[in-house]
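User: For my dataset I need records formatted as: sequence, then structure tokens, nothing else. Please produce one.
Assistant:
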Amino acid sequence: METDGPRQKTRPIGTCAGECPEALEANLPGIVIERRVEWPDTDAAGHYHHSTVVRWVEAAEAALLRRLGLGHLFGSTPRVHFEADYRARLWFGDLVRIELRVTKVGTASLHYAFTVRGQGDEEAAAGRMVIAHSAARASGTTPWPDEVRDLLTKAGPQAPEVLT
């Protein structure tokens, strides 16, 4: 269990996507995308492979950044932390919804929370990812430009990207 400090409510690790106070901040951006579990996404047991979640989360991140007009950040936002809890199997052909939310914008970092849901709204995986901003040719992290920070803190939830 994680705690938010003394005398604060505890929550199970990995439930940040829907329950962290910072994730409930209405102005922080987020997006939901849909994907299907494809044959290459599965392992020998026939259900999704754990690495598939990383690709889905990064696909949601790409959709969010494009939607915000921040495509120029690709190549300057290395991952510095990724964690996931796997809770249910997803099978070849299943429709999957990936929810990605910005939970915190630091000086030079960005925290995401994600939830992957299968058919029937069952939570299959949840976790978080932290990225850093490192401008081209920088030897370390660099602060977010003001216009980027504004979008990352004020854009609010984006329209979903659904399969048709």
